[in-house]
Design a protein that fits this description.
The chain has a single domain, classed as Aldolase class I (TIM Barrel, Alpha-Beta Barrel), CATH 3.20.20. The protein is an alpha/beta fold. The longest helix is centred in the N-terminal third of the chain and has 11 residues. It is built from 9 helices and 8 strands.
């Protein structure tokens, strides 16, 4: 069964405890936490202190997505804050492999993310080592972009390169229509922000996305 990860960047941060509880009651399987530094991407979001706060109230795993330069400098801090998965971009300046090694040493599952323009073959070596591969279906950094369908062609070759127990996640522009296409392509986790948090029936939307 496909898992659903609400993207907390779309939540009401003034009522984050309540938003977390609302998502869990609606059937969320894990939370997707977007970390942006204003360098690797043109937006700034949250740091380890906020992740620690989320961890305090969340009862499902935290998938912490680092859209930052030099992820190796901050990997330990986000793991200590409560990440269950630490995901870094293969394209990011710095030592992505080093960040993943730190996470593994701290008992945290690891993942790599690839941008829409990045070929699957560019991630094959790391894909065989990690627990999760995140395929970005929009350009990272800002919400509200349209789904890029061509990225679905990466799913099959990535699956072949990954360990049997590893999972593929997709993030960006997911709604009932695009989620169906993603499920058909073989993803394991669907990340959605606006579609979930703006829904009149959050539980119904999560089940629709799940298929």
């Amino acid at each position: 069964m496909v898992m659903i990860a609400p993207s907390l960047l779309s939540a009401d941060f003034g009522n984050l405890k309540e938003e977390i509880a609302r998502c869990e009651a609606a059937g969320a399987d894990l939370f997707h936490v977007d970390v942006m530094d204003g360098h690797y991407v043109g937006n700034i979001t949250i740091g380890p202190v906020v992740v620690k706060g989320i961890r305090k109230y969340a009862n499902v795993p935290l998938d912490v997505h680092l859209m930052i330069t030099n992820p190796e400098r901050y990997a330990a801090a986000f793991c200590e804050a409560g990440a269950d998965y630490l995901v870094a971009h293969v394209e990011a300046p710095g030592d992505t492999g080093g960040a993943l090694r730190i996470a593994r040493e701290m008992g945290v599952k690891t993942g790599i993310a690839i941008n829409p323009e990045t070929a699957a073959k560019s991630a094959m070596a790391l894909a065989s080592l990690v627990d999760l591969v995140l395929v970005m279906s929009v350009h990272p950094g800002f919400a509200g972009q349209k789904f890029i369908p061509d990225v679905l062609e990466k799913i099959a070759p990535l699956r072949e390169a990954m360990r049997p127990d590893a999972v593929i996640e997709i993030d960006g522009g997911l709604n009932p229509e695009t989620a169906e296409r993603a499920r058909e392509a073989g993803v394991d986790i669907i990340v959605a922000g606006s579609a979930i948090f703006k829904a009149d029936d959050m539980a119904g939307m999560i089940e629709t996305l799940r298929g």
